[in-house]
Amino acid sequence: MTAALKVEGLVKQYRQARALDGIDLEVREGEFFGLLGPNGAGKTTLINILAGLTRPTYGSAEVMGFDVMREYPQSRRALGVVPQELVYDPFFTAREVLRVQSGYFGIRKNDDWIEHVLHNLGMDEHADKNMRALSGGMKRRVLVAQALVHKPPVIVLDEPTAGVDVDLRQMLWQFIRSLNKEGHTVVLTTHYLEEAENLCERIAMLKQGRLVALDSTHNLLSRRLEHQAQLKIDNDPPPSIGLKRGPDNNWIFIFQEFTELEVMLAAIRTAGIKVLEMQLVEPDLEDVFTEIIRNA
Amino acid sequence: MNGFQTLLYKELLRFWKVAFQTILAPVVTAMLYLLIFSHVLEKHVQVYPGVSYTTFLVPGLIMMSMLQNAFANSSSSLIQSKITGNIVFVLLAPLSYLEFFSAYMLAAVIRGVVVGLGVGVVTLWFTDLPLMHPIWLLAFTAISTGILAALGIIAGMWADKFDQLAAFQNFLIMPLTFLSGVFYSIHSLPAFWQATSHWNPVFYMIDGFRWGFFGLSDVPPVMSLLVVGVCFVAISGFTLLLLRRGYKLRW
């Protein structure tokens, strides 16, 4: 099976800085894949190389089996990129922009698909407005539509929900999920880790141009060994039990094995303290991300 | 439409949507030059026998307007797209560098020709212009505007801000066009400046274009065509080389 995206030994050296430092990565066809990392980690550089906007110093990159340098017409046809920056052409309406973008890909009669995309992004009433007259959220929708106009098998969304309202986020994810179900591969970079956790099957993490983690979301979440229990109790516990004071009169207990929890509860009972409330807090992707990036 | 046709269409639509600025304004500017220079010099200067100064001036003004607008079209379109960031939509598409070059060049040539036609039509009110060699006129129009369109692509790629583009325009393109014999024959210049003018390719564009109207010129038209042709090949080749390397477009 052809990989949707494949990069091998990818290095990008700018004069002083090394943006990518030997990345090997493969995204399978039909995956919903997350690409995470702090600012300056190299996510956008990697996307730009895949899109042909940046040329690699060393290494190779392929989209649907097509080399992005040697076979750029095929690789670009296979890829739709939603850029991070809110860019637009001020001379045209949203519909004109989409028709022009279709034409760049040699698609002549694309109005039905354009209507479908506009409708699914809630743009019906704004399609014939000049780009300058659209709000930031509407401009962002047009950017998404531009990336989808040629029905690419691989869709890359570079922080598509940065600074957009809840309404658009929900609409966007609903549409992108439906495209993913139809077989489109989706690669997402975002700083909203909750989004990545909910949407992505696998996640790669970059730091300073290096790949520091690559695993399924489930495995990454279970990688974190520590669990946390939040308790409300009727009296201050002795320090030997190992509870720490948390916010809102809560007490925090951090443990690795659930048997430790049982021991702690027994000690509380022995001390004559009653547990009023208890809640288990499972680690989320933000905790995992923070831990991996800190230790990498 | 294929990618090339679409990019050409988009570029044409871009300048057509702001036609007051891109077509009407340069026609009015050329008219002002014609009114002022012909009023001041009509009775004092006769460059070619039997040709009034106003009539002499018109072909130069037409060519100058065409050149400046061909340059302005490709350069301003590119730098605007670079600065606003929307160049990314063209770069993400499966367009070859040859298609990119051809579309930007052809759109710039068309704008130059439209402005030239506008200036030509309006000057009909002022003078009767003979048309001795129309094929040569077309050849000089196409090749000369092509050169300036290619220079516009280079300038648009090179400049990172409007200031740099203005420098390219004001310190290179404007002097070359103004000091090319638009308003005078180089035979009226001192020997040093005559010799210097022969190093200015725009001089050959104007002189050859004028020959197309009058059948009179400062240098033989074949020589002008040769110089302009060589410049076209060299500048276009250089532009294609830059585009192929993705100079300042694909980092």
Structure in words:
The complex is a heterodimer of chains A (296) and B (251). Chain A contains ten helices and 14 strands. Chain A has 296 residues and is α/β, with parallel strands linked by helices. Chain A folds into two domains: 5-221, 3-Layer(aba) Sandwich (Rossmann fold); 225-282, Alpha-Beta Plaits (2-Layer Sandwich). In chain A, strands 6-7-8-3-9-10 form a six-stranded mixed β-sheet, sandwiched between helices. In chain A, a hairpin with a 5-residue loop joins β12 (244-245) and β13. The longest helix of chain A is centred in the middle third of the chain and has 16 residues, at 166-181. The radius of gyration of chain A is 24 Å and the shape is elongated. In chain B, α3 packs antiparallel against α7 (162-178). Chain B is globular. By secondary structure, chain B is an all-alpha fold. Chain B is built from ten helices and no strands. Chain B has one domain (3-245). The interface between A and B is medium-sized, with 31 and 28 residues.
How does the SSE layout of this entry go?
The complex is a heterodimer of chains A (296) and B (251).
Chain A: E1 5-13, E2 18-27, E3 32-36, H1 43-51, E4 58-63, E5 66-67, H2 72-77, E6 79-82, H3 94-104, H4 111-120, H5 136-148, E7 154-158, H6 166-181, E8 185-189, H7 193-199, E9 202-207, E10 210-216, H8 217-223, E11 227-233, E12 244-245, E13 251-255, H9 258-270, E14 275-281, H10 285-295
Parallel strand pairs in A: 3-8, 3-9, 6-7, 7-8
Antiparallel strand pairs in A: 1-2, 1-4, 4-5, 9-10, 11-13, 11-14, 12-13
Helix pairs in contact in A: 3-5
Chain B: H1 3-16, H2 19-41, H3 53-84, H4 87-91, H5 97-123, H6 134-158, H7 162-178, H8 191-197, H9 201-214, H10 221-245
Helix pairs in contact in B: 1-5, 2-3, 2-5, 3-5, 3-6, 3-7, 3-9, 5-6, 5-10, 6-9, 6-10, 9-10
Q: End-to-end span of chain B in angstroms?
A: 29 Å
Low-confidence stretches of chain A: none
Total of domains of chain B? 1
Helical proportion of chain A? Answer: 25-40%
Order of helices and strands of chain A: EEEHEEHEHHHEHEHEEHEEEHEH
CATH superfamily of the largest domain in chain A: P-loop containing nucleotide triphosphate hydrolases
Mean pLDDT of chain A: 89
CATH topology assignment of the largest domain in chain A: Rossmann fold
Name the structural class of chain B.
Answer: mainly alpha
Number of strands of chain A: 14
User: How many DSSP E strands of chain B?
Assistant: 0
Which chains share the greatest interface?
A: A-B, 31 and 28 residues
- Measured between the Cα atoms of the first and last residue of chain A, the distance is 32 Å
Fraction of residues in β-strands of chain B: under 5%
Question: What's the gyration radius of chain A in Å?
Answer: 24 Å
Strand content of chain A: 25-35%
Helix content of chain B: over 70%
Q: What's the oligomerization state?
A: heterodimer
Instruction: Report the major sheet of chain A.
Output: 6 strands, mixed
- The CATH level-2 architecture of the largest domain in chain A is identified as 3-Layer(aba) Sandwich
Number of helices of chain B: 10
